[in-house]
Specification:
Blueprint (H helix, E strand, L loop, with lengths): L4 H22 L9 H6 L6 H12 L2 H13 L6 H23 L5 H9 L1 H35 L3 H51 L4 H11 L22 H4 L2 H11 L1 H8 L4 H35 L4 H6 L4 H6 L6 H36 L5 H27 L5 H9 L3 H13 L5 H21 L5 H22 L20 H21 L1
Helix pairs in contact: 1-8, 1-16, 3-8, 3-12, 3-13, 3-16, 4-7, 4-13, 4-18, 5-11, 5-13, 5-22, 6-7, 7-8, 7-16, 7-17, 7-18, 8-9, 8-13, 8-16, 8-17, 11-19, 12-16, 13-22, 16-17, 19-20, 19-21, 20-21
Length: about 525
């Protein structure tokens, strides 16, 4: 199924406008050149609305839109735990973690680790994050975006991936984080509009003459099993979402690793004008997080009924659930289909651009600069652009052989991220709040995270992934404490000094936090 002329015009207008705006906001005064703070942290001048929008645009990529709609089809609303619990984590990060990062003038997550534990820990994590972002995150977003484009346009997947990667590179390599963050405002608007359009069309088709709200009511009444947040033990997806453990176990570890200590996410907050703007930006992102299941999970649930009615290709969905969103896009009429297609492109390229910028930041500031010192700011910015482009080329080559064979791209990302996430969370939490934790304790947690994960994965394969992550987290925590106590205390200048940091927050932030929490409690009570 190909796009109509009006669809192509809509997508072309979006692409040209986005590239033009990115170049315009990235321009420098006559005679000025970008330094590393301008390129990697947008000059530390981002307002709250840009931070919140950019966080969501960077997060909601192909792995969410394609992967979670596929999981909505296969599992149901329970997959929304990845979105709704993240809202709480965003608020905790804003109140307790951002004050530390911003007070210390942190550029990158490895930089904090060097200050706290030394160069060895920084080097280990720099290499890990570069490999993870390139070989897992970039490849997954490229592959799933390519699948969706192939489903709608008929373009070969490789050509689709190359087009997405090239578009992301065009507007992000020149402008850096400022171009990415400010254009993400447009991306979020298009993403939400396109996502709501797909949701409305799918529900309206189910509701027939009675409309979309009737379609949603019909889904609730005829498919109650797809509207359970807490899955029973005999559910086929219990291994991925193990009942009450989605609330009590390792999902929190994954969230804190992703939203608190993940460079390509937290980099937006590091580029804030001040702490207050950063905290408001994360609160704004938490509110937007509440909406995401409406535009990615509900359409996936609707696809079950639509496939049964023959409205979409049920065989394609049965073969691979990641085809769900691409099939749903075919329901949109000409013109609107172009907007939905633009929304998908917006989700993919904003995430690609964010990851490219973060890879280049870590490589340039934490790896290259530590080897090649005393170079000009312009030189480091050039290295950043080259490293970002190189990462995209590598991801393009790895995408099909590395990600193409897995059943669910979304769960694949969680699995690979989970190998190190417990150790990362332990190292940062103890680095913040424990003065006794030393370098050896940090290495014990980071290396133990991989070893404990591998040991449990193969010795006890029936343990659900989220429970395994929790067990590994507790084991890493114990290892870090024991090894630190058995060896000399860190140098006096290594522990984080909290005496000059205030953790109090504005009454508006407190109100927003309570409101988000109350909404989430209501959602879980209604869908338990």
């Amino acid at each position: 199924m190909s796009l109509a002329l009006i669809d192509i015009i809509v997508v072309a207008i979006y692409a040209v406008a986005l590239a033009g705006i990115a170049i315009w906001v990235s321009r420098e005064p006559a005679g000025a050149t970008k330094n590393t703070e301008d390129y990697f942290l947008a000059g530390r001048a981002l307002p709250w609305w840009a931070i919140g929008a950019s966080l969501i645009a960077s997060n909601i990529s192909a792995e969410q839109i394609i992967g979670q709609s596929g999981q909505g089809y296969a599992v149901g609303i329970a997959i929304a735990a990845y979105e709704w619990q993240a809202a709480i984590v965003l608020l905790i990060v804003a109140k307790w973690f951002l004050p530390i990062f911003l007070k210390r003038g942190i550029f990158t997550m490895p930089q904090f680790l060097e200050q706290r534990y030394g160069r060895g820990v920084k080097s280990l994590m720099s290499v890990y994050w570069i490999i993870l972002y390139t070989a897992v995150n970039l490849t997954t977003v490229l592959w799933l975006g390519g699948l969706a484009m192939n489903s709608l346009t008929g373009w070969p997947v490789m050509m689709s991936m190359a087009a997405l990667g090239s578009f992301a590179a065009i507007y992000s390599l020149y402008g850096g984080l400022k171009a990415v963050a400010l254009t993400d405002i447009i991306q979020v608007v298009i993403l939400i509009m396109g996502g709501l359009a797909i949701t409305w069309i799918a529900l309206d088709k189910i509701g027939e003459a009675s409309g979309a709200l009737a379609g949603l009511s019909r889904l609730f009444s005829e498919m109650p099993g797809h509207f359970e947040m807490i899955l029973p033990r005999d559910h086929s997806a219990y291994g991925d979402l193990p009942g009450i453990w989605t609330l009590l176990g390792g999902l929190w570890v994954l969230h804190f690793s992703y939203w608190g200590f993940n460079q390509y996410i937290i980099q937006r907050a590091l580029g804030a004008e001040n702490l207050g703007e950063a905290q408001k930006g994360l609160a704004f992102a938490a509110f937007l997080k509440l909406l995401i299941p409406l535009i990615v999970v509900i359409p996936g649930i609707a696809a079950v009924m639509l496939a049964g009615q023959g409205a979409i290709d049920g065989a394609a969905l049965a073969e691979k659930s990641d085809h769900t969103y691409g099939e749903l896009m075919k329901l949109a009429p000409a013109g609107l289909r172009g907007l939905v297609f633009a929304a998908l492109i917006a989700a993919v390229v904003s995430s690609l651009a964010s990851m490219m910028n973060s890879i280049s930041t870590i490589f340039t500031m934490d790896v290259y600069r530590s080897i090649f010192r005393e170079r000009t700011e312009h030189h480091y910015v050039t290295v950043g652009r080259i490293s970002a482009f190189s990462a995209m080329v590598i991801a393009l080559l790895l995408a099909k052989p590395f990600i193409g064979g897995f059943e669910s791209g979304f769960q694949t990302v969680q699995e690979y991220s989970g190998f190190i996430a417990p150790g990362v969370v332990v190292v940062f939490l103890l680095g913040f709040f424990s003065k006794r934790t030393n370098t050896l304790g940090a290495f014990a947690a980071l290396l133990g995270s991989i070893l404990f994960n591998i040991a449990l994965k193969y010795s006890a394969p029936d343990i659900p992934f989220i429970i395994r992550i929790w067990i590994v987290f507790m084991s890493c925590l114990a290892a870090a404490i024991v090894f630190s106590r058995m060896t000399p205390a860190p140098k006096t200048d290594q522990p984080v000094q909290l005496g000059d940091i205030t953790f109090s927050t504005h009454p508006l932030f407190n109100f927003l936090a309570l409101t988000v929490t109350a909404i989430l409690i209501g959602l879980y009570m209604a869908l338990w």
